[in-house]
Batch of 2 targets.
Target 1
Amino acid sequence: MLKVLDSAVPIACWSCSIGHNDSTLFCPHCSKIQPPPGGDYFQVFGLEPKLNLDLQALEHEFHRLSRKVHPDRFARAGDNEREWSLADTALLNDAYRTLKDPLHRTEYLLKLEGAEIGEEHSGKDRKDPSRVPADLLEEVFDLNMQLEEMRMARKMGEEDPALEESLSEAKKKFEGLMAAVDHDLRTQWQVWDAGEKAARPAAQETMVALLDRRRYLSNLVRDVTETLGA
Amino acid sequence: MAELNQIGRVVGIDLGTTNSLVAYMQGDAPVVIPGVDGSNLVPSVVALDPVPIGGGRPTVTVGNTARKALIETPERVIYSVKRLMGRGLEEIHDELKLFPFRLAEDVEEGEVPRIRLGELKFTPPEISAYILRQLKRNAERFFGAPVTQAVITVPAYFNDAQRQATKDAGRMAGLEVLRLVNEPTAAALAYGLDRAKVGTIAVYDLGGGTFDISILKLRDGIFEVQSTNGDTHLGGDDIDNLLLTIALDEIHAEHGVDLRRHPGAVQALRKAAIDAKIGLSTETAAHFDIELPNGDRYQRDIPRAVFELLIEPVLDRTAGPCKQAIADAGLTPEQIDEVVLVGGSTRIPAVRQLVDELFHLSARGKKPHTELNPDEVVALGAAVQADILAGASKSTEEMLLLDVTPLSLGIEALGGTVARIIQRNSTIPASATEHFTTGVEGQTNVAIHVVQGERELAADCRSLARFDLRGIPPMSAGLPRIEVKFLIDADGILHVSAREQRSGQAATIEVKPTYGLTDEQVENMILDSFDHAEEDFAKRLLIEARNEAETILAAVERAPASPAWQQLTAEERAAISAASGQLNDIKRGEDPAAIRDATLALDQATRRFAELMMEAAVTTAIRGKTMDAADEDLGEAVTAPHAMAPAEFK
């Protein structure tokens, strides 16, 4: 069964009536749970929007906040507190899931800055030839031919060890390219986190391009893995 | 044993395919609450008694009593109903080939199927509600106080509809379901109470009808599920079916007797198959020796090696989910510190061998954990979670369970593909926000189709709900911006809300779950009983205790007429007579606890008699004497799995 949820954001604490900053999960005065705050995922953890994160500290904070907001702690509370605990925990979980993953974190921060990044919905983008990175055009063309050949061979129940070998090598190569992208991304993180206003727009543009390239490579690798594994 | 006036106790319930249990936290350790017959396991079997003389609604019985009716009146009994929970008509079609139950004829497409039981019809949640009510009563009897709140476990791989159906069943039984907990996670909680505080564990849960694998990270009382996988239609039932098919085929081929046409006989043969399976966990061979209607004997040895070859394909189906779960957690088998075995089927040596190979256990000098009874561990964990929710206990105040959604949530996009909005293995509660717009000038409705599953095409996923966003202010095509928020709660159940952002209007959502009951339907199915009259709880306890006493006394009165009575020794008969005399005296008193103790004593005294009766019923059924009573054609397929044999053995 599906239900309609609704939430409102009060300015003052619902319990003690003292006004508070709306990016907090708890009232700083009376410690009561508050409706989901309006801030971003970084603010949920009290962090500056930066790309280099101490993952252990993040996990620790995730556990600390979970202990306080999780619906298990409000099983017998009133309707409002129960609903806020649910919404707050969903926000906390969404935030943690996004920030702990380096790619999701980068993408999220760039979106906060207004960058447009291709959605990672399956089905979309995968076969769009205009997205092929220019330096890979030729190789991608060859790879797609081989993939098609492989699928046909599989359909006919034929073995083609040479083709398999060649695809495995292509896969290794593209995985190598992905690792290179990851390295380049981390370099850009440093630039971004250093916080020099003048350097940021260029870093942002580079990261958007790197993320697009990485998504493209990752789809290719997945295609090869699926075809080889089928 | 009764702790009076502890109102507000939360119990933990394992609503299983084969057996169900209720447990609670006694101090700092969870314990299972036994039924009136002293047994911890309540078989998940529901039977409809004959229509009372003079008409009226027949009584529903649950558990061991219902199980006995299975051989005599199979058309009035239902078991393994968990396999039908939250499933649509077309989905259960295959299942029904394996079950001796019949659908009500008037069920329409899109409706929750109803099962015919004698002259009545029930939805699967109603059947489950009867089981839950029995567990609720067992707990109330034990505490001497009402129980209204519970934690109920579900297979981790249950989808939204199956979870909602379970919650509905709780409500029908008069229970507020504070939380649905995934079975493997519950097992981890039960083990985690006294285990090392840091580490990665895998829980391999092969039960009667479902298989789950979950991988958890434990740290300072936080149980964080990393990944889960499974198969909601894989379990010990499938193994029973294999043995049964062999026996049925061989009997047909060698003796010219087609037992498939006789449900009572098939059920009796199934009991023999289950006994053989259980025996093979400790013995190197099992033996069938069954007298057939034509006077022939069907005799067959099943060496363990043959059995293991036979079940290999079934067990192999658990390997894929295990590998996927390990990969989804971003781990290798070597990184898993401990493996916990749950479910009666993990007693099978071949299952343990497979687990050992999958997780490289003996290679690392490790053994899987089996210290807690695999039939009880889930209920024990549910009790731990109940205690966490009650929030009143020192022993669990540091514990917190962070579970995940087993299946990805998506929306059907153009061309029938799935746009995934919440990935599987996301920690719940989880949410996602999507924006929709209109495609036509002045359009005021947008239709959305929500699905659950991992496949690329919506048609291959499980349809969760279709809904219309209505009341969108008429604007040019593409101008409205409707924000829809999807939220999966801590029970793994989806909630949706929507808002048109340009006008600020909350769009109305009319949600039509693809499978499931409406609130109103659930309301109408609430089991009518005196369960709500908490004010005369004491009176009710007394009435119930007297009813139980009357039931067993009536059975004892009929006993001397049965051939089984002659098989008892003089001492056994004298013991029964003494115990029934005592109960007759005590039942006139006002003390429900004393009546119950005397009932239990009589039950103990008649235990061997009951076993002899059961054996006699099985023999009769196989010889075909009850065939007229149960003349039904089951078709080619094997009949259903069921709970004939309690899986209690060491």
Target 2
Amino acid sequence: MGAEQAVVVTAPADVRDTAGLAGKYLTFTLAGEDYAVGVLKVREIIKLLDITSVPQVPRHVKGVVNLRGKVIPVVDLRLKFGFEEQAYTDRTCIVVVEVAMPSSTALMGIVVDSVSDVLTLSAADLEAPPEFGARASADYILGVATVKGRVKILLDLDRVLGADAALTPGA
Amino acid sequence: MTRPAGNDGRRRSRRQPGPAEEPAATAQPGTPGTDPAAEVPAWVSEVDDLLSRAACELVLEPGGHDAGIGPMLARVSATLAGTGIDRLAALAARIDAARTAPIDVLAGSFADIQAAWNAWKASAPDPAAAGERTDASATATDPADPELAMLAGDRELAAMFMAEALDHLATIETLVLQVEAHPGDVRLLNDIFRPFHTIKGNAGALGITSIQEVAHSIENLLDLARDGRHTIGSAEIEIILRGVDLLATMVKSLPVRLAGGSAPDVGRACGALVAEVDALVRGGTPADTAATAPAHSAPAQPGTTDTAAPPVPAAVPDARAARTDGSLTAVRVDTRKLDALVDIVGELVIVQSIIFADPALQQCMDERLARNLGQLRRITSDLQRSAMSMRMMPIRPTFQKMARLVRDLGRRAGKSVELVMSGEDTELDRKVVEEITDPLMHMVRNSIDHGIEPPDVRRAAGKPLPARVTLSALHEGGSIVIGIADDGAGLDTERIRARAVSLGLIREDAALSPAEIHELIFRPGFSTADQVTELSGRGVGMDVVRRNIESLRGRVEIQTTRGVGTRFTIRLPLTLAILEGLLLRAGSERFVLPTFCVRESLRPARNQVHGFQGQQVIQVRDSVLPLVHLAALFGIDGSLPDPADATVVVIEDNGRRVGIVVDELLGKQEVVIKSLGEAFARVRGIAGGAILGDGRVGLILDAGGLVDLLDRPLACAA
């Protein structure tokens, strides 16, 4: 489903294509930029926990944490998108999201600088992704929305975290 | 049979015929799933789940605003709004209004929200059962398969029928073997009659006539036997066992048939069996007055056998009592629910230990609090014990399978063998019971095929007949010990040695103790049987047995005496959910190393550690083992101790030993094993994660993976 949508929105800009993206989004910041993920993907937001590092994984995979007894992987989106590493602050959060993996869905934590708000984005707010500018690869972006003069980048988390098996070593 | 979890899923799915399309139409990014059938119950249970979690969070987070509740409720409202149902959309709006309120206000209105949701669930239009049934039968039933018309409409019913029937068949099988020893035991015959009767009845009620007919025919034979009108001999037993096998095949093929696939055609076998039973009943009856009457009446009037029970008044109350008991004392539960329960209880225990270790609590000296905490601790550990015990089941069914195997194999090999069992009621983890069956079967097969001598050889040696295979199970410490012993010829050390040399497993001049030579039978590709018989060997060797047992975190040992017999001893952990491990520290990280792969740990003296071709090695007594720095292997900062200042843990996997260098040993600990999931499936040397006492995750090391990670420069085999 995620894949289908991504294909649609990377086609030439068309109001109807982005209309499908209207809905509620959780917004957060990364290195001063605003990002958004659909609330249906978000399971919860937790404060930063002690992360246990896992060997043989890329640098942006920080390791695993104990989410009320479930062991879930944690990915630092700053590092994933190639921003400079920054010491975690007390505004740093882990957003727990549901990601489609090749053969199942998995809970995964993403480390973000701070969580902002839940916004309802209407079709009028939405545009197809720009050709340039964002640090995240265009594959990861569903679209952009402009709210009160600020640009929010809508992320396709299944692409960012799941389908390309971003966590596994080698290959 | 991929039913959504239980009854609820189905009830809900019927209630809300088409919500699947609606959320898809509003197309939230990432609306999960594309398959409407799978999605229908999912959103209801998801809302349930989210609401109950939000309720918990509200209770746990008095004062202050928890960022987690907002998104949870936002998700609920988005889901509800997406259903396109007016009442739910209204509820979504209420949730939206409530979720931004301060937490105490939210807590007040939350109860109303939950009540409204529950009211909707309760009042939603009741299942149009007919609609679903037609639907299901249209897709699933092959018109050529009228037997399945009823089952196709109700997969749950089908699953239940199958599970019950297979249970009954297993019971029958064991009992039939006992009849062989006590042919005249009427109670035993009654015990066999009843499950056949139940299978027949259930199959009849569900319209599966083929199964009904076979069960009926054998039931009829048994009915005569328990009335004393027919004697059970070896031919009867043979045919009953064949009937059991046939019925099992038919029952097991139901899912395939339901899915529209082609199952093995058993029509002819059924006909043949029914005819044979018929012939047996007719011709095999001893000179008795009733010889022709029952043979005549029973097959002719299949309906009467149900009511034919009254002539044996004793049997009826008996049968009824047994059935009532059975249904009252046991409940079928989805194993996933059980696993989830065990998981949650594991968490509870861990949280409790975190709380008890809290310095703030340690300082508190209140006596009443201490007493109550003590009570809490006791209850928690009771809860854990009973949750664990729910996953446990007796090893009896597995042993019973062996009884059948011993009988069949002994007969086919022309050897007379009796099986003696002890400790059948020993309980072990369900998963262990399932996984241990194949290795056990293989070992029993080995015993009969290679261990036990032919009767003439035994007679010449003055050994008793029948030969004896002993299966035993018992608890010993924290583990289960299963023994398979035979009083056969014992392992032939010289032949094993010669074979190993010819296979190139060892050098001709290798100095090996007999025990070391016996270990060689666990090497891949090893088989001493000069000819591979139909019964044993062929493809699967003892190496597979050992690998299966090790994958259950167990070990297998051999004791053998030439001419007296062989005993295999399998040691298994009580449960797979909990692992006993050594807690290690390497740099800033802690790891759990399963104790079953640890051979020893030591603080090496400086002169034990050497360099060898650029690799550090350690001399432990007379062997030289490669050393691995765990911190270096896993790229952990802050530690690369000189082995002479550190601790070395010697691990063994598949006969290879390696020394692992760590900063320190933190002690022994039992941990609940958690999978790291698909994301980390390819990480080598890590078997999973565990929540440690302080709530952090510790990684569980995988000995096999660690050994593989080394490019073994030194062979550590003898």
